[in-house]
Structures are given as structure tokens and as C-alpha cells.
Amino acid sequence: MNNNLEGRLESLSPAKKALIEKLKAAKAGLDTPNFGQKIPRRVNPKERAPLSFAQQRLWFLDQLEGPGATYNMPTAIELKGPLNIAALEKVFTELSNRHESLRTNFISVDGEPFQIIHESSDIEIAQINLENLSSFER
Question: Is the distance from CB of 104 to CB of 116 less than 8 angstroms?
Fold first, then answer.
């Protein structure tokens, strides 16, 4: 099993090998307790901010394995009856306003990941009229 792991590590690209070395260095620093450290608050919400430890882990795995749907939860919901689109848009807008994670994306600058939290904005739901299509096409 150890040989298999060594073989996999050897076959990685130089960029992925560098990520692993970075992770090892970061892990070495985590062996000492740092309970007194607080996560720094951003002075300006528009500027890039460092990733949390959980975000760093997910970013690292994404860089190592490539994009995937591991943490996506696809689902379909069938609604019967009228739908108040304006109310649904307001609900999604309020959710986005309350939860920064829904307005956050990640960038990499010189191999260092950062998060950017975007300002709140109204959510608009795209509507596609399928009435003229057959039931099979819908």
C-alpha cells in the first residue's frame, strides 16, 4: 500500500507536489496550540480575506483532485399550483444577505488562496416558459 502511495505522489504534477509541501509546512505549524489566536476581521469587506481552516482544506482538495461535485447536493422539487416568483426572489435575496458564504468566491494570487465576499444584491430567478412544448419535451 505504501508503494502505491509513493507512486501516486511521484506521478503528481510539480504544482500539486508544491501544494503537498505547502500542506506539510502548514501542518508542522499546527502542532503547537494557538488557542489564543483570533481570526482577523476584515477592515474593508471588499478586499480579499484569508481562508478559514475549513476553506483551506476544501481549496487544497479542489486543487489536488480538480473540480468535483463532492459537496454539492443536487435535488429537484416539483411544485403544483401557482408560484409567487416575487416572494421566492425576496426569500433568496434575504438568504444571500444574511449568509456571506452564499456571496463568496475564491481566487488564487501567486498560489495563495483568498476569499472575496461580494456585496448583497437582489436575486432574480430566470423563468423559462415551457407551455408550448410537449409533455415529453418538458
Answer: yes
Q: How far apart (Å, rounded) are the C-alpha atoms in residues 50 and 45?
A: 12
> Residues near 40 by Cβ (< 8 Å), separated by ≥ 6?
50
Own/partner contacts of 124-132, CB < 8 Å, gap of 24 or more, are 124/89, 125/85, 125/88, 125/89, 125/92, 127/85
Angle between helix 53-65 and helix 14-30 axes, rounded to 10 deg: 160
What's the whole-model pTM score?
Answer: 0.57
Q: Please state, in angstroms and rounded to a whole number, the distance separating the CA atoms of residues 76 and 138.
A: 14
Residues 6+ apart with CB under 8 A from 100: 117
Radius of gyration of the chain (CA): 22
Check residue 43 and report its DSSP letter: S
Phi, psi of 42 (to 5 degrees): -75, 135
Rounded Cα–Cα distance for residues 42 and 48 (Å): 8
DSSP code, position 50: P
124: pLDDT confidence band, cut at 50, 70 and 90?
Answer: very high
